[in-house]
């Protein structure tokens, strides 16, 4: 795997309601690249952008109990992370989304976004624990999360988008990755993502 050049300047900032469209576009592109095979092609090739825009508009209009951090470079969105604070009494806060623009994969942006997520958890959540779900087929992401200190703790079945099982291809697996204490992750810097 080749490493992309690190963007000269990356700014990290909280997302606001006006960012919903940009986040949705990156989210839809990332799902199309990485969820194909798990999610139905008709769903991924359909009007995913409109659906994701509605999701992000709602999330950012009522952000209580969440943290959404953007990474921007050269005037464009390079990545984002969305955390649901104290989502689970056992596992802690949920990294519900982490997506990095394809052209800057392996530049360190994903690692920095995970560190920002961990800092948000430590500053605002009751528990220092952090977790996420990753598709079983997404071995590259699994390797990244393991490099960030995450431990695979259990396997489940991926939830259907929009609650509609017809939008899945069968019963794709997913793994829970866990960080019992986000303190170490909060100070993480590259290895490249």
Automatic annotation (TrEMBL):
<keyword id="KW-0012">Acyltransferase</keyword>
<keyword id="KW-0808">Transferase</keyword>
<dbReference type="InterPro" id="IPR016181">
    <property type="entry name" value="Acyl_CoA_acyltransferase"/>
</dbReference>
<dbReference type="Pfam" id="PF00583">
    <property type="entry name" value="Acetyltransf_1"/>
</dbReference>
<dbReference type="GO" id="GO:0016747">
    <property type="term" value="F:acyltransferase activity, transferring groups other than amino-acyl groups"/>
</dbReference>
<protein>
    <submittedName>
        <fullName>GCN5-related N-acetyltransferase</fullName>
    </submittedName>
</protein>
<feature type="domain" description="N-acetyltransferase">
    <location>
        <begin position="10"/>
        <end position="182"/>
    </location>
</feature>
<dbReference type="InterPro" id="IPR000182">
    <property type="entry name" value="GNAT_dom"/>
</dbReference>
<dbReference type="InterPro" id="IPR050832">
    <property type="entry name" value="Bact_Acetyltransf"/>
</dbReference>
């Amino acid at each position: 795997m080749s490493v992309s050049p690190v963007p000269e300047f990356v700014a990290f900032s909280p997302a606001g309601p006006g960012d919903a469209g940009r986040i949705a576009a990156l989210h839809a592109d990332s799902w199309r690249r990485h969820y194909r095979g798990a999610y139905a092609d008709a769903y991924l090739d359909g009007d995913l952008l409109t659906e994701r825009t509605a999701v992000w508009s709602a999330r950012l209009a009522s952000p209580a109990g969440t943290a959404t951090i953007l990474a921007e470079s050269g005037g464009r969105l390079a990545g984002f992370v969305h955390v649901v604070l104290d989502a689970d009494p056992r596992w802690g806060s949920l990294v519900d989304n982490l997506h990095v623009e394809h052209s800057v994969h392996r530049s360190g942006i994903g690692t920095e976004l995970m560190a920002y997520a961990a800092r948000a958890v430590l500053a605002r959540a009751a528990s220092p624990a952090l977790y996420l779900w990753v598709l079983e087929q997404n071995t590259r992401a699994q390797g990244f999360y393991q490099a960030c200190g995450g431990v695979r703790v259990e396997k489940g079945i991926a939830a259907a988008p929009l609650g509609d099982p017809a939008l899945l291809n069968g019963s794709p697996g997913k793994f829970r990755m866990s960080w019992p204490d986000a303190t170490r992750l909060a100070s993480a810097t590259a290895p490249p993502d």
